[in-house]
Structure formats: C-alpha cells, structure tokens
Amino acid sequence: MMSERASSWFSSLRLQYLLAYACATGADWLQGPHVYALYESYGLKTKDISSLFVAGFGSSLALGTVVASYGDKIGRKKICLLYGILYGASCLTKHSSDYWILFVGRILAGIATSILLTSFEAWLVSEAHNKKGLEENYLTTVLTQAQQINGVAAILAGGIAQVAASHFGFVAPFDLAIFFLIATTVIVGKTWSEPPSSQTTDTSFFQNGWRVLFEDRDVLLLGLIQGLFEGSMYIFILEWTPMLSQKDNPTDPTPNIPHGYIFSGFMTSVFVGSSIFGLLTKKIASLETILLSVIAISAASFFVVIFFPPNFWRNFGALLVFEACIGIFWPCIGSLRARMLPDGCRSTLMNFFRIPVNVVIIVVLLQDYPLLTNFLACAVMLVIAVVLQTLIVLRRRPAHASVHYLHEPLLSVPEEQI
C-alpha cells in the first residue's frame, strides 16, 4: 500500500495525461470526416485530392519521423506543445482554396499526426517510469482508458463536426478543432512536467534507435507486428465504404449505406474492445498471449469478407469484430512498448515502427488495386504478424529481463485508484 502523497501523484498523472489526450484526439477526429468534402467543395479534381493525401502520409513518413523523434533529445513535452501549433496552422490553411496552401497544410498535419501517435504516449511512460517507477499494470490501465476516450471522442466529434458543417460549411469543423488544440497546448504547458531523463545532449539518439532496433530481436519483432497490424487497419479505413457498398446480387441497385451509423458502430466496437482488454488483463497474465489472439481473430475477420459472397450484415459484423480487436490491440501493444523500449530512444523507436505503415498507405493511394486484393493484403499481413508474435510468445523472456527502465523501487498503487 502506497502513501497518500504517492497515490495523489498517480491520480494527478492520469488526469493530466487523459485531459490532454482527449483534447488532442478530439481535435484530430473533428477534422477527419470532412477533409475530402472540403477539398471537393473547392473544386479540386480527384487526382489533386489524392496527391494531397499522399503528401500528408509522406510528410508523416519523412518529416514526422524526424521531428517527433527529437522528443528523445529536447523533451517530449516540448514536442507535444509543437503538436498544437502545427495542427492549428494546418487547420487555418483550410480557409484557402489554393492547392499549394492546402498542400502545406497537409505537410503540417502529417508531422502533427506523428507527434500525436508517438510523443504523447512516450511522455506518459517516461514520466511514470523515470520519475516514480509506476508498476506496469497501472500504466496499462491508463493506456486502456486513453483508448476508451479515443473511441468516445471519435463518436462525439463525428456528430459535432456534422452539425457544424451543416450549419456553417465544411471549414467549420476545422475551426472548432483549433479550440481543442489550444486547450491541448494549455493543458500540456501548464500541467505537464519534463522528465529530466528524456532530455539529452547526445546527438546520436537517432542512431541509438537503429542500434536497439536491430540488436534487440523482440523490439524488432514488436515493431514489425505493429507495422503490419496498423497497415492493415489503414487499408481497412480507406476501403470499408466500397466493401460495405457491394451488391448482394448483381441485379440489385448499388446500396446507399448509412455511413454515420456505421462509423458510430465501428467506434463503439473500439470502446467495447478496450473495455474487454481491461478484463483480459485480469484473467490472462501474458500480454503477449493476448496480442497473439487479437491478431489471429483480426486475420479471421478479413478472411470472412474475402472468401464469402458479398453480404452487408456479414461483412459489417466481421469488420465490427476487427474494430473490437483494434480496441484491444492499442493498449496491449502500448503496454508492451512501455516494457520493452529503452527510454533514451523511445520516441525514435515508436516513429520507426510507423515507417512501414506510411509506406503501405502511400502505395495503396497511388495504386488502384482491386478491392479484394487490398483486403487480401490485410489478411496476409496479419497472418505474418501472427507468425512473428508466435515467435515472441515462444521465446518470451521473464518480465524483468526485458525491462530497460527500472532503476528504482516501484510504486504500489491501491486498487481503488485504478
């Protein structure tokens, strides 16, 4: 049982992180539903819109990897502050119909996305482990709650964005996002501290990341598994509409599917999945085993939509299962990253993990592959991920052997604080 002071610290850390994360993800979700519609309203051709999306993912691949990784040198808090500035500037560019101004906006958004997906978590783990030494199961709880908040934020932001766009035009959701970005910046700036160990004058942090990646086989395998799973997730995001719009019979008219309700169903499944993960961690001791099961079920859900004749409800059900798996996957792999990645190059490694993801997305955007080919690619990537995760399970080390960050006694947080 820990002291009242330490218990208060845990509650404060959780609140600081979840408030900032909720605002940051809320700003991101507000923009997503109307990016394409805004570009179309400006009279941009389909080819130009596609090139803008490629620019965003290309920016995340190249510039985002470098900028977000610099958190290992100058501090994750500073990089998270930069998130609000870059994404806010990107939102402002949406007021222009000029292609090149919109192009700059996509570049800024790509960098901001890399920061959101890596630096926020890196700050939390660094703060928990290097300052106080928080036990893994309590950090897992915070990551699970963050995923639940992400699902709720997506559902609420989608509805708010729709109302704003209907009354004030497609640019309105981006203006609303700016307020959330300002809130994110204020919360991070006023409440977050900067763990001293996350700042270094060592200019070789980038090289250190590559060294760890190729010297620690488990880290390399984990990065490949994340890349394969996340790559399949993004292909799904790009292709679920045409998949669910398939005709059950060739003579039937093309169905007009309820996109809003479907999206809400997907996000509800993510929330349910993250809630299930919380229960699984109490029943199954090994995070590695949970991750293996989730990836295998995800692969099976894609095989359903590939090998069975088109049917809306069957395909929708299979994709709901996949979304629930996403809700389990993120807190699970986040907990494994917290355990396995050394803090000195944590942000760098997390950005390295996302390199194959952005490559996959860019290839899919540039190549007009058939629908089933893309979904088959998802299934194949997940099968490969199952094989790699099986290798980790078979050669799994004791928990203490893979922990790089434990240099002081751990805190013990009372159960009621979780």
List descriptors.
418 residues; mainly alpha; 0% strand; disordered C terminus
Overall 3D shape = globular
pLDDT < 50 runs, ≥5 residues: 399-418
Helix/strand order, N-terminal first: HHHHHHHHHHHHHHHH
What fraction of residues sit in β-strands? under 5%
- Distinct helical segment count: 16
- The count of β-strands is 0
The main β sheet shows up as: none
What is the straight-line distance between the termini? 13 Å
Mean pLDDT: 85
Rg from Cα: 21 Å
By secondary-structure content and strand pairing, the structural class works out as mainly alpha
What is the helix content? Answer: over 70%
Task: Kindly describe this structure.
Helix content is 78%, strand content 0%. With 418 residues, the chain is mainly alpha-helical. It is globular and about 60 Å long. The protein contains 16 helices and no strands. 46% of the residues are buried.
The gist of it:
The chain is mostly helical.
List the helices and strands and how they pair.
Elements: H1 4-31, H2 35-41, H3 46-69, H4 71-74, H5 76-93, H6 99-132, H7 136-168, H8 172-191, H9 205-215, H10 217-244, H11 259-283, H12 287-307, H13 312-340, H14 346-353, H15 355-366, H16 371-394
Helix pairs in contact: 1-6, 1-7, 1-8, 3-6, 3-14, 3-15, 5-6, 5-8, 6-14, 7-11, 7-13, 9-10, 9-14, 10-13, 10-14, 10-15, 10-16, 11-13, 12-13, 12-16
